[in-house]
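Below is one such record:
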Amino acid sequence: MPKTPVFLSGVRLSRGLEERKEILQLLNDGGYSVVDLSDDEMAKLHVRYMVGGRPSKALQERLFSFEFPESPGALLKFLHTLGTHWNISLFHYRSHGTDYGRVLAAFELGEHEPDFETRLNELGYECHDETHNPAFRFFLAG
């Protein structure tokens, strides 16, 4: 977890990849350490809405992104299937009125991790472990 200030910035480019490389080089030349999150979907879909939400103490949590059909009851199915054996330490759901809903959630699993993996399989929704994602580590992890 960084002890120095960390900034998340979005920039609209007119010249695409070439311009992005120029900006990154200028920042590096200026002595700034840069992590380019341009291709990080989790950062674009969730983290940009959640910056500043770091917990006050370190948590032993795993972070997952989920994608599921946007239909009545889909979010409820998600919550019911995962059950109540672990603490949900982070939760972000944003409906864009599209065919798929996206959830970012962190769980404190402890000794229940094998059961959690079973529940993920039962759920049947696409999911990705984002625990080591740089955007999570920089802006949200405890």
User: Anything to note?
Assistant: The radius of gyration is 17 Å. The longest helix spans residues 17-29.
